[in-house]
Every structure is written in structure tokens, then in C-alpha cells.
């Protein structure tokens, strides 16, 4: 295994130092370290080192929609984006609702070798919202599932939600809710507001999200369980989570990069690249989620990377699929929205994109660890001064539905290390090395 000496890096933007990565761990930290004879020395004087990023919300599409993404292509894209772990959402075909399917996803993730893949288990059989899936069997499987979600669909029946919250307590699991009241959003195409009225597209009211979050924080309090809110998108949702936390309710929440940056104004061109669930909201909502992330009300940024093949996006708005890719732009968007605006430091970025998601997913024994001697060398090196134009065709993901295409974004992932092995170096995926390590 190659030894790496990262020269003059800024861990989390702190004082420059050298990091020696050997035998899968951070072996030494200090200035002016001697380079072992066989070490690869990386000039990291312009770079910030973060603990490897952890995504709590990735759609890898395999099994079932390998035309959109596979576990191999999606995890390679994740490594390029600086991730060392992803939680793979359950809305595959077949659904990840049995121990057999989550184990298959887990095995394919290991075989691909780019990041650690932690399968999310479905809450209900077939995501149908009626019968609880085999939560215990998935938790006990080799995949050790701790996050359960019907994402893409809401667990709308309060009795089913209550049972799920009660059940996962047995193994310290969490229910990650896709908060969308189905009756209030039947046929909805975009955020309900001035723009939807002008465009004549069916609106998706903020209350459809907020009502479910309000209900669920109360249910979580009632049964004393842990709740995670997926892709929170409205100012009202931020207020409800803030209130719930002030009451001591065990709730965590995520926001996506696109909801930190983009608004419903983009729908004016009727380009379905901007069609997503939950929909892009207003500038006031963008401000509120930025503030919520900065003050800790929102715990994490999660990509909701939702790849779709061209034919599902190159069509009229109403016929197009909901979803956007995000793994390879997430860090840059967070830099632009939060760091370059002075709202967050790089240490905060490490918290919202690594430490906190690892803790929520209960993988914090391996990921989101401090950069310290003896810790697993899961690291991301970022060049904050870089600027690049997003070119979806040049990305590692199999799909091209990036809402940031053509935009110039700050920052670039220069290297990613998974247990001391480089998965990305000089911004390029290490295909040969990852293949050897398999
Ligand atoms: N976020 C999205 O817009 N799409 C997701 C699922 C979902 O609808 O949440 C997908 O799987 O494509």
C-alpha cells in the first residue's frame, strides 16, 4: 500500500502541517516530517484537508435503473466529489426492503471499492406505505442498516410512522422522512407561489412539507425516538425543526446543495433540469435554509443525488422525472453558498458534510473522524481557490441532469483517500489503483 506525505496541508483550514498516511491510518502529524523512502509526497500547501465526506442521501439506482447510474459509476462520482461514504437510498427495483437486497447493494459497493456504501432500508414494503418492511432483519444483516427511508415517497400514515419510529429504537436506527403530504401535492409540478401561477404549473405548497414535519417531530417526541428530516426546503420547516430542537426532541435535518442555491424562478424556462422533489422554493426560503444550516438547526448537507437518463429529462416539464445529480458539485455549492459568504468556516463544512452525517447514520466509528494520529485515513483535499465551469458530460456520474451545468463554481476536490488509499489524485479518479485494491 502506498504511503502518502501531504506536505503543508491545512487540516480544516487550521495551521499548516504535514500528514503522513500509512497502513490505512493517519500515522504522523507535524511540520517538516521526513518522507519515508517509498512515500508519494503531495504538495498540499494550497489545500484544505477535511475528513472524508459522508452523504446520507444518494440514489445509486442499482438494482433496477442501471441506465441512470450503477453502484460502480455512482460511487466513482462520489469519490470525485470528495466522499468516502454514501448512504444508498432504498427506491431501487427491487426495493431495498429485505435483508437480501440490502446485502446485495452492500456487496456491490464493496466490490466497486470507491467509497463505503451503506444501504438505506425501506420503511415499508415496496415503499407502499402500508406494511413495515423487515427492519430488524436489515439491521441484523451484513449491511448493518441503521437508516430507514421510503424517500421518493412519504410515510404518510401516522400509525405506520409511529410503529416505524418505535421499532428502530431497538437497534438505534433512525427513520429519515421524505416529508410530503400526498393529498396536498397530487399532480404538483413545482413550488406553489407567484411563479407557478404565472407559468400555469400545478403548485406544491410549502405546507405539504411543513405539516408532515410538524406531525413527525411530535410523533418522535411521543415515542421517544430519533427522526431525521430529508431535504428540508422551506422557511417554515426550518422554524418547526428549530422549535422541536428547543423542546429537546431528537430530530435532525438535512438540506440539499440545490436548495441552498437555486430558486423557483429557474422554472420560467420550463427546463425540467430544474424539476426536483421537493421543488426549488423562493429566495426567502433559500435565505432561511442558509441561516438554519449556519446556526445548526439544519444538521447536515446531503446531496439527494438523483440521476436520470436523458429520455426522462429531455421532455416537457410535466412528463419529466423529478431529480438532479449532485455528488460532484456538492462541496463547491456549499463553499459558494456558505463559506465564501462568510456564514461558515471549513470546520463547519467538515461538520455538516462529514462528522454529523456519519453520526446520524451511525457510521461514526469509521467515518467523520477527527484528523488525528491513529484515525482511519479517510480524507478529502480541497483547493478553495480553484474555479471551474460545471460540464455534466465530463462528470463521472452516468447521468447529465446537473442544474449547475455551465455555471462557474468555486473550489475543487484535488484528492480523496479511503483508508489511506487514493481514490482520486490531481482531481482524477484512480481507476487502476481502485481496481487493484478490489
Ligand atoms: N429528489 C428527487 O427529485 N428524486 C428522487 C426521489 C424523490 O422524489 O425524492 C429520485 O429518486 O429521483
UniProtKB/TrEMBL annotation:
The keyword Hydrolase applies. Pathway: Pyrimidine metabolism; UMP biosynthesis via de novo pathway; (S)-dihydroorotate from bicarbonate: step 3/3. Its cofactor is Zn(2+). The active site is at 304. This is Dihydroorotase. Binds 2 Zn(2+) ions per subunit. Zn(2+) 2 binds at residues 151, 178, 231. Gene3D superfamilies: Metal-dependent hydrolases, Urease, subunit C, domain 1. Belongs to the metallo-dependent hydrolases superfamily. DHOase family. Class I DHOase subfamily. GO terms for biological process: 'de novo' UMP biosynthetic process; purine nucleobase catabolic process. Keywords: Hydrolase, Metal-binding, Pyrimidine biosynthesis, Zinc. Residues 48-234 form the Dihydroorotase catalytic domain. PANTHER family: ALLANTOINASE (PTHR43668:SF2). Catalyzes the reversible cyclization of carbamoyl aspartate to dihydroorotate. It comes from Cellulomonas uda. NCBIfam families: PRK09357.1-1 (NF006836), pyrC_multi (TIGR00857). The gene is pyrC. InterPro entries: DHOase, DHOase/Allantoinase_Hydrolase, DHOase_cat, Dihydroorotase_CS, Metal-dep_hydrolase_composite, Metal_Hydrolase.
Amino acid at each position: 500500500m502506498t504511503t502518502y506525505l501531504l506536505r503543508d496541508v491545512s487540516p480544516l483550514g487550521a495551521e499548516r502541517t504535514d500528514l503522513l498516511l500509512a497502513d490505512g491510518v493517519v500515522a504522523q502529524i507535524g511540520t517538516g516530517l521526513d518522507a519515508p523512502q517509498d512515500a508519494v509526497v503531495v504538495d498540499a500547501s494550497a489545500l484544505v484537508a477535511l475528513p472524508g465526506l459522508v452523504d446520507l442521501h444518494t440514489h445509486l439506482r442499482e438494482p433496477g435503473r442501471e441506465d441512470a447510474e450503477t453502484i460502480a459509476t455512482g460511487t466513482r462520482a462520489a469519490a470525485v466529489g470528495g466522499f468516502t461514504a454514501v448512504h444508498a437510498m432504498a427506491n431501487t427495483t427491487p426495493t431495498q426492503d429485505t435483508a437480501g437486497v440490502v446485502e446485495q447493494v452492500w456487496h456491490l459497493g464493496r466490490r466497486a471499492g470507491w467509497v463505503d456504501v451503506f444501504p438505506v432500508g425501506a420503511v415499508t414494503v415496496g415503499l407502499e406505505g402500508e406494511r413495515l418492511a423487515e427492519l430488524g432483519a436489515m439491521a441484523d444483516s451484513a449491511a448493518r442498516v441503521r437508516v430507514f427511508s421510503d424517500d421518493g415517497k412519504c410515510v404518510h400514515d401516522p400509525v405506520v410512522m409511529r410503529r416505524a419510529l418505535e421499532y428502530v429504537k431497538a437497534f438505534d436506527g433512525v427513520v429519515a422522512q421524505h416529508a410530503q403530504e400526498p393529498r396536498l401535492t397530487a399532480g404538483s409540478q413545482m413550488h406553489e407561489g407567484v411563479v407557478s401561477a404565472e407559468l400555469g404549473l400545478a403548485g406544491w405548497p410549502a405546507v405539504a412539507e411543513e405539516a408532515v414535519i410538524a406531525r413527525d417531530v411530535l410523533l418522535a417526541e411521543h415515542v421517544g425516538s430519533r427522526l431525521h428530516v430529508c431535504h428540508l426546503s422551506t422557511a417554515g420547516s426550518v422554524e418547526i425543526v428549530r422549535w422541536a430542537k428547543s423542546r429537546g426532541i431528537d430530530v435532525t435535518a438535512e438540506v440539499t446543495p440545490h436548495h441552498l442555491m437555486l430558486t423557483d424562478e429557474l422554472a420560467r424556462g420550463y427546463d425540467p433540469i430544474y424539476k426536483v422533489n421537493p421543488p426549488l422554493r423562493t429566495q426567502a426560503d433559500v435565505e432561511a435554509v442558509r441561516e438554519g444550516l449556519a446556526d445548526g438547526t439544519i444538521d447536515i448537507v446531503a446531496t439527494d443525488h438523483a440521476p436520470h437518463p436523458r429520455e426522462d429529462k429531455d421532455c416537457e416539464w410535466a412528463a419529466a422525472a423529478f431529480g438532479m445529480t449532485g455528488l460532484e458539485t456538492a462541496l463547491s455549492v456549499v463553499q459558494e453558498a456558505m463559506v465564501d459568504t462568510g456564514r461558515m468556516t471549513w470546520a463547519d463544512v467538515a461538520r455538516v458534510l462529514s462528522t454529523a452525517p456519519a453520526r446520524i447514520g451511525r457510521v461514526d466509528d469509521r467515518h467523520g473522524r477527527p484528523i488525528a494520529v491513529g484515525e482511519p485515513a479517510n480524507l478529502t483535499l480541497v483547493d478553495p481557490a480553484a474555479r471551474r465551469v460545471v460540464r455534466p458530460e465530463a462528470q463521472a456520474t452516468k447521468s447529465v441532469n446537473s442544474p449547475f451545468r455551465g455555471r462557474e463554481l468555486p473550489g475543487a476536490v484535488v484528492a480523496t483517500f479511503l483508508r489511506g488509499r487514493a481514490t482520486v489524485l490531481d482531481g482524477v479518479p484512480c481507476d487502476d489503483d481502485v481496481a487493484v485494491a478490489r
